[in-house]
Write a structure and sequence with these properties.
Blueprint lengths: L8 E2 L16 H12 L4 E5 L6 H14 L7 E6 L4 H8 L6 H11 L3 H16 L3 E6 L6 H9 L3 E6 L9 E3 L10
Parallel strand pairs: 1-3, 2-5, 2-6, 3-4, 4-5
């Protein structure tokens, strides 16, 4: 049973943009994706051609979890994928340590500030496991290193992508909306 004081904390700089108000015909897909998030699957791949509605569907799901906490999700984030996962995390996820502490680690470790931030973020994500739900939008050209990082994180992760193959992850493919569903 859900504790009424349960809130979901945003761990990225910004939530997903508000989904469109004119959302029709994707209720079954939304249910399928949410069922996968709520199951033992930790990675969900939402794939399809550009313009099919992958991002809009996921923005809607993001806001449902963010505004109405469900299950054990305590942290949520929206990452706009860029050139690689580490850079995308650096640009999107807020710092978990005080700046002085992170700067000290940076000076001592001789790693880039992006690497230090990624290491601290991964530490946080590992610590909170299935309590974290991340959405990674437009991960269309993921390098093997990025795929390996995602598959080794213990968090719930939803990826939108034009690719429909992601190591050991069965995709939910988004197709064009049937004419009868267009209103």
């Amino acid at each position: 049973m859900m504790n009424e004081n349960h809130k979901v904390s945003l761990i990225t700089n910004y939530p997903a943009d508000k989904p469109t108000d004119n959302f029709v015909g994707r209720e079954g897909l939304i249910k399928d994706i949410k069922d996968m998030i709520d199951s033992e699957n930790k990675t969900v791949l939402v794939s399809g051609f550009g313009g099919m509605g992958k991002t809009e569907i996921c923005k809607k799901i993001f806001h449902e979890y963010y505004n109405s906490p469900q299950n054990d999700i305590k942290y949520i984030g929206w990452i706009n994928y860029g050139t690689n996962l580490k850079s995308s995390i650096f640009q999107n996820i807020i710092y978990f340590k005080k700046f002085e502490e992170m700067n000290y680690i940076y000076e001592v470790s001789h790693k880039s500030i992006e690497e230090v931030h990624f290491d601290l973020t991964r530490e946080f994500l590992n610590e909170h496991g299935g309590q974290v739900l991340l959405f990674i939008d437009n991960m269309n050209e993921a390098e093997k290193e990025d795929r390996d990082i995602i598959l080794n994180l213990p968090n719930k992760i939803v990826i939108t992508s034009r690719i429909n193959e992601f190591d050991r992850v069965k995709p939910i493919e988004i197709d064009k909306l049937p004419l009868a569903d267009c209103k």
